[in-house]
Fold:
Amino acid sequence: MVLEQLTIVLVAPAGALNIGSTARAMANFGASDLRLVTPQTDHLQDEARKMAVKATVILEQATVFDDLGSALADCRFALGTTRRFGKYRENLLHPDQAAEYALPLLQKGRVALVFGREDSGLKTEELDLCQRLITIPTSDLLPSMNLAQSVAVCLYEFARSLGAGKGAAAAARKLADNARLEEMFQHMRTTFQTIDYIDPQNPEHILRAYRRFLGRAALDPREVRILRGLLSQIDWLDSERRRLAGEGGE
Structure:
């Protein structure tokens, strides 16, 4: 089943009940890969197992990571969840839109749904590691949803879209994984700083704009190589410019 390629990532979850309920929701909809980033509680304790019911195997096979980048390294695409709007949080997808967008990508590799802390969600630098962002439309009277319920809502939309036949056709290309994307963005940061293209006091302002529109493009490995080739050429030209400037000053 295609949802076996879907990874659920919980960042710094604090409640064992939420982790157990997440495992149960995953089993309900056919997902099995649970990843925990710096969990604040033991995900194998009795409270988690009781909420997982018959999905304890998902808890037992869950992988724990020290940081989100490591948890996403082998994923071809990541969608981060947020309930806040504003700068750097644009072009948000609703869960049904996210499902329709991501299901074709699952045909060619692992896709991650990333959920943040129960009290404060994902930090901006964590959302930077995600190519697209999801928000669940809720009432202004109580906009924040329970963590496990948020996972269930998103999984339901993926299962519903899959059942409706959306995304059934195989994607035409294989996407670059997050590890390669982050290498590209780090190269981009270094190059942009070297040529004084970004403000050293606020380098993330421009870099986040690149992350967002390149994330919407869903880059494949060849496209990443092309962009890194361009960056390498810029690096070479800048080094030559500096060398010639140095020789001219002698």
In short: The chain has two domains: 2-163, 178-248. The first strand starts at residue 6 and ends at 11.
